[in-house]
Amino acid sequence: MTYTQSDLPKLGSPAERALAGAGITRLVQLTEMSEKELLRLHGVGQHAIKALRLALQARGLSFRAE
Q1: C-alpha dihedral, 39 to 40 to 43 to 46, nearest 10°
Q2: Are 12 and 40 in contact (CB under 8 A)?
Q3: Global pTM?
Q4: 3-state secondary structure of 13
Q5: pLDDT in tens, 14-49
Q6: Residue 45 class from Cβ within 10 Å (0-12 exposed, 13-18 middle, 19+ buried)?
Q7: CA-CA distance, 43 to 1, in Å (whole number)?
Q8: Which of 56, 14, 11, 21 is nearest to 35 (CA)?
Q9: DSSP 8-class letter at 8
Q10: What is d(CA 18, CA 30) in angstroms, rounded to the nearest whole number?
């Protein structure tokens, strides 16, 4: 079994728990979700969305379109 370190940016604990609970451990997984879908996760707010958006943009990626 190979362990791959998460490349998600540092977020607040509630947002990190929400993403982990949804099985999101890699930044690329966010390209399959819209911002609206992520905001439905308890613990994910606008601050987390902004940090995730910036991390995606830095890698030439984005959230899925609505």
Answers
A1: 20
A2: no
A3: 0.88
A4: helix
A5: 999 999 999 999 999 999 999 999 999 999 999 999
A6: middle
A7: 30
A8: 56
A9: P
A10: 13
As given in the structure block, the two tokens for residue 47 are: 């601050």
Which pair of structure tokens corresponds to residue 50? 């902004």
Residue 56: CB atoms within 10 A of its CB come to: 17
Domains of the chain, by residue range, sit at: 13-58
Residue 46 CA to residue 27 CA, distance in Å, equals 17
Instruction: Quote the CA–CA distance of 5 and 63 in Å, as a whole number.
Output: 21
CB 8 within 8 A of CB 27: yes
